Amino acid sequence: MIPDYENYKKLADSLKSASALLNLDRKSQLYQDIITICNHLVNPSFRIAVFGPFNHGKSTLLNAMLGNRTLPIDLIPTTGASITVKYGSDVQTRIMLVDGTEIYRSGTEILQQFAILDGNRQMRKDVASVEVFCPHPFLETGVEFLDLPGTNDRDEQDNLVREQLLSADIVIQLLDGRKLMTLGERENLRDWLLDRGIKTVIFVANFINLLEPDEQKQVQNRLLFVAESFRAELPPGFSNLYRVDALPALRARLKGDVAAASSSGLAAFETALQNIVGILQPNRGSVRLPRVEAIASQVQHSLKAKIDPIVIELKSFDNKQNSKIEIKQKAANLIYKGFTTSVGELRDWLALPKLLTKYQADAAVALAENNFKVWQTNTLKKDLNQLQLAAVKWLYQAYEFFQEERPQDLLIPFPSEPQVILPPKPSSTDDLSEPGSIAVGGGIGWLLGGPVGAAVVGSISYLLNKNIQKQDEQLAKESYHQDVAKLCITAIEDYLSNFSKQGLSILNEYEQKSDKIICFEVSQEPLEFTNKRENLQQLQNGFNQLLRELEKVKILSNHQPYKEIPKYSNTKRRYSPQPKRVQISPEKDPDVKRQQENTAKNTGTRVESVSTSPPKASPSPRPEEVEAKFRDWELNEEIAQMKAEMPSHGFKTGKQQNTTQSNEAPTQPKTQTEKDKITRAYSILGLPANASLAEVKQAYRTLVKKWHPDLFVNQPQLQKQAQEKMHLVNEAYTILSDK
């Protein structure tokens, strides 16, 4: 068993998996190299390949080393297949054909049929592998010999040799001593061996015996230079250059002539080879891993060449999508904030204590003077319309922006006009005109106080001092006035109480529906990008797995693992800035139940509906129409600026965002021009020069509510002035916010 066999097996599996991710052509050199090195990495045998150009005597040398007359290797004129020589108790040959047919024959004569080049010097296309089994003691130690076809003859043969070299633990490079190394041989040394991590190479010079004695020394020196220039990685103390006269060695071995075999250089070479194998064989991983490293480096570069463009493409896509989502999220948040603020103001206005404080006195006087309907229209309805419009505009703004559910009108009706039944008048009366209304006014002034009440009390005092003489009659008159005033006050209190309860109930229901309007749906991404994510995940997993397996066998890499990609959820999802509201049934909430009961009581009364919705947009408006209407309705400059940036940019940060809530005074500008602009901007907003950004924002909101052009729709002249004013206000706010 090979040391670290399990780690090598996992590494081989990882390399094969990576090649599958690359979708390599099975005929490509890289694919063939991967399969060859992966199979050899876990091969328990130690392989020695004889390599060199054709007619260099490779088969002759191998036959001389084996020394068995029954081997026909010396009889084959040109090897046409890669022949593996393994240990066997008898000489046998096994031929594997491409179609899976297996041919066993005793001896080696069948090699002349399947393992030689044909008349056109072509290899047979149907042969997958050729194996010869031989009872040699060196082979019995787990060593295999590999007789390769000659190179520099045919591309098909060169490709086979190049592939098979990766599966050799030692390469015997056979040189022809009669001539200098050819260009092809020098290229093979670099391209086929060194660059692929094959460094356990032994050079054997043949045919030197055919040279004149004075030439032999020169050739020996020249070949020694070649061998020394090759970065061989053999055990210390061993040369990587030997001289073997192959044909004389074969003849000597066949004759049993020990002296002749020794003089041919065969004996010295065999001894060195066996010792080198004895050292390298137990730790063959050190021989094979450099080749794995070279192949793995190619695979990693190929994987990165596929991964990195996908990463860039997906990152660009995600950035664009996230920018769009962030814009919508900010719009939703700002709209929701504006809506809740407006709803809060309306809810606060509808609170009964606030209604009583603001309206009870004037409403009671109007009721007593029979002007209640006029007061309701000119005062209460006007104030309600403004507050309702402020809230509803945010929902229509959300609808135009997100195109979700269309908002409904907010309709808060008024209760029936209050009725007062006057008590009987005292018996002693005078002929004052309309004493009842004067009495009511006097009573309200007496009960509530304030400027209105004081004026009424003054009038009543004047009339009483002038016309009423008796103290008891004056007390009686005042008592009657007070009774009438109390009846009016009570009637108005009931009216405002019903109005408050019904209005708050309707407002709560209306607010509940807003979460379907102030929201947007994040749709599924295109299938093309979903597939790219899955492909990227597989590629990165394969890359990281290969990197981990390389580290286990101490192969260091210049590459860093890819970070694990967070699981991407490609499902439709809805974003809403609103918190989940708890629905409370009337049975569990007595206040809600009372409000509903009070609403039901008014079903028989006359109700006046108030519509506060802005002009409705046409169905499915074009984008440019949406943009225009959005800006027309804008009540918050932050959203207007954000919308202006939407077509090509995501949200900006820092100074460009205009959303800081800091209370620190803005940093002073450097140039005089900027100072003048800022001074003017403070003046337009009516603020001192050291005002904080919070004060700037509050002043801006106040001026917007006062001068927004929508408030002067039916007053063209005032609307034009308002537009000019808002232009200055917006410009001032932008200058101070950008500081």
Describe, in short, the structure shown.
The protein is an alpha/beta fold.
General description of the model:
The chain is of the alpha/beta class. It has helices at residues 5-21, 29-41, 58-66, 111-114, 137-140, 155-165, 183-193, 213-229, 246-255, 258-263, 266-280, 285-350, 352-368, 372-402, 435-448, 450-467, 471-513, 527-552, 590-601, 623-632, 637-645, 672-684, 693-707, 716-738; strands at residues 46-51, 83-87, 92-97, 102-106, 127-134, 143-147, 170-176, 201-206, 241-243, 520-522, 573-575. The strands form two sheets. Strands 4-3-5-2-6-1-7-8-9 form a nine-stranded mixed β-sheet, sandwiched between helices. It has a two-stranded antiparallel sheet with strand order 10-11. Strand 7 (170-176), helix 7 and strand 8 (201-206) form a beta-alpha-beta unit. Helix 12 packs antiparallel against helix 14 (372-402). The chain is rod-shaped and about 160 Å long. Residues 429-477, 582-637 and 645-669 have low confidence and may be disordered.
Task: Reconstruct the topology from this structure.
Layout: H1 5-21, H2 29-41, E1 46-51, H3 58-66, E2 83-87, E3 92-97, E4 102-106, H4 111-114, E5 127-134, H5 137-140, E6 143-147, H6 155-165, E7 170-176, H7 183-193, E8 201-206, H8 213-229, E9 241-243, H9 246-255, H10 258-263, H11 266-280, H12 285-350, H13 352-368, H14 372-402, H15 435-448, H16 450-467, H17 471-513, E10 520-522, H18 527-552, E11 573-575, H19 590-601, H20 623-632, H21 637-645, H22 672-684, H23 693-707, H24 716-738
Parallel strand pairs: 1-6, 1-7, 2-5, 7-8, 8-9
Antiparallel strand pairs: 2-6, 3-4, 3-5, 10-11
